[in-house]
Here is the input.
Amino acid sequence: MNLKSGLMKILKTGPCTSVQDLGRSNLSHWGIPISGVADQKSAGWVNHLLQNRKESAVLEISQPGLSLSFSDPTIICIAGASALVKLNGKETHPSGLIYPESGDVLDIGPFYTGARVYLGIKGGFQSEERLSSKSWYQGITSLEYAKKGTELPYFAVPSPFFPFYAKAKWNTSWFEKTELEVFPGPDWDLLSKQEKNLILTHRFTVSSLANRMAVQLQDLVPNSLPELPTNPVYPGTIQLTSGGKLLLLMKDAQVTGGYPRILQIEEESQWILAQKKPGDQLEFSLKRP
Here is the structure.
């Protein structure tokens, strides 16, 4: 059966809107970051409700002010940060499935809680695939971020729909907590007892220096760590600079780094971190492998 292709057109967007899937694995030895959705739980939710494959590409939206249109009927789902969502100018409940028709316009306004909204579409976005992933990354895909006029292909869903009127409730309380579970990193034991205690008892504040590469915390941790050779790093690695800055690496992080790797964030806590905004509070809870 031949499926009709539709186009979702970006009419307006803030910075850092991108297509992401589960990313690129087993390529770090070539210097290629993993990339992929920063909050896998939210992206997984929309693909689950749409009955998509778990690796289906979604739209990751990191700033309010997105407006887009649909050329053909489809089904979408929204999760992640709680936000104001309107379809054709009328506020719509973002939980559950939404059924845009040809020419409909969807707007995502202010975020109430959280930092990233995920928009999934029936069948996933059919954008270019590079190195076994549709995740956008500069130098690998033709686009790094969406801009006005960007068009994203999808498979149209023939109308009329047979909609499900039940609304699956999306709960944001899981990412509103401040605690991140962490494991000791390779260089944890280079810290003094006092330095370790400070890191595990202090409540840190997320700075404005936060993106898909790393989140930097405002509070400094004075330390006497030695300089180290460059070593492998991964999403979730926490590095401590000689100046006391804590760098929490995200999905687009480099694959090597020279700063001491003091902690590694547990996977589900990485998804919580992805929903933190500048000014939000964080604290670390140490787990042993």
Q: What stands out?
A: The two ends are 49 Å apart (CA to CA). The longest strand covers residues 105-121. Residues 19 and 59 are 5 Å apart (CA to CA). The chain is about 10% helix and 35% strand.
